[in-house]
Amino acid sequence: MAKEHPELRWGIIATGMIASWFVTDLSIPRTDARAKHTVQAIGSSNLSKAKKFAQEFLPSSAETISCYGSYEEVYNDPNVDIIYIATPHAYHKQNCLDAIRAGKNVLCEKPFAVNAREAKAVIDAARNKGVYVMEGMWTRFVPLVRKLRELLYDQKVIGDINRTFADFGLDMPIKDLPATSRLRDVNLGAGSLLDIGIYSLTWGLLTLEDPGAKVELRIQASQTLEDGIDVLSSILLHYPKTGRHGILTSSLLHKTDDVFARVEGSKGTLLLSGDTASMPNVIALVLKSENDGKDMGDKRKEKSGEATTGQKQRFEFSEPTGGRGFYYEADAIALDIARGQKESDTMPLAETLRIMQILDEVRKQGGAKFPQDDE
Ligand SMILES: NC(=O)C1=CN([C@@H]2O[C@H](COP(=O)(O)OP(=O)(O)OC[C@H]3O[C@@H](n4cnc5c(N)ncnc54)[C@H](OP(=O)(O)O)[C@@H]3O)[C@@H](O)[C@H]2O)C=CC1
Ligand SMILES: O=C1OC[C@@H](O)[C@H](O)[C@H]1O
Question: What is the CATH number of the domain that holds 311?
């Protein structure tokens, strides 16, 4: 790697599933890396958990990592440049505020907070302290998203965009989980909307809003609640100026098929697939043939094989490293910080706040409520 690549020394807060995915990706050698990442410290509710995590997921550097039995010690570690927060949603606000108070930069997992009020408190604190803060909506940083925006907005391959459907569904047997699980406990921000509906919403915003355009948005939403948590959430976004619609859904009852999003335009359709809506790996284009929409005579010819069929194109994105792709957001942050930026252009804080406001409105209409809403 060239010498001028910036380096970030990470302090990891919590030792759950996503923290293991993140540090694993950071430690994968990459020929095209744009930054150097070192896991410097790990903080857990329990010191032995932190040590076990280091041994299991960072075996080659475990001896050099500072393991702590508290989060506070990570915030105060002078060798840490940036804190990665991987606790359940309900703790994000306090963890962020504590890290910011210690003068640390922060990458906080999605959703940034439980509601917009909490998100604003963190954003205000970061701006006052002059540290870098970003919501870990890592999917925005994968190369597929750059291609998607190029196809939709630079090349306008599907013409005028009319409508996007996006779904993130998991088959999640909530009642079989312990009552304390972050996926079941309303005190921890449980429910499909904040956990996975946020990706459906993100795909809607990425595919329906032209870069830089000032948008006006109407929101209609419904939710189905079980034991107070939303197992189904459906959002209808309507953009009155362009007439565009987004139908953006999440479910804990059914897993989405591989194709999780469909963007319809005047010249064709763009489909997004992946194992889940957080891990897209294919863009498929089905462009309308010249005969589409012509009179019945032409349609009959098409059926008999005389007419051309719609043009199809496919763009596949696989990770050559075998990793998941969390290093894209990590590299982008390292470059931002090296340039002196205090927030990301790809996931700006104003967008994080707007997303939390949309999610608040969806919950207001749908009925899902968190104890934090009354604080
Ligand atoms: N970007 C992505 O693709 C993904 C993002 N996420 C996000 O990451 C966050 C964490 O999710 P995930 O890793 O799946 O969660 P886990 O339940 O697997 O881990 C959460 C960790 O947080 C700590 N923790 C602190 N307080 C509590 C508590 N009361 N209950 C449970 N854990 C607690 C624990 O670590 P310790 O004991 O070591 O302190 C625990 O291991 C969520 O906000 C989620 O939205 C999750 C999955 C994927
Ligand atoms: O962000 C996420 O993406 C993957 C899901 O399995 C997980 O529940 C969610 O937090």
Answer: 3.30.360.10
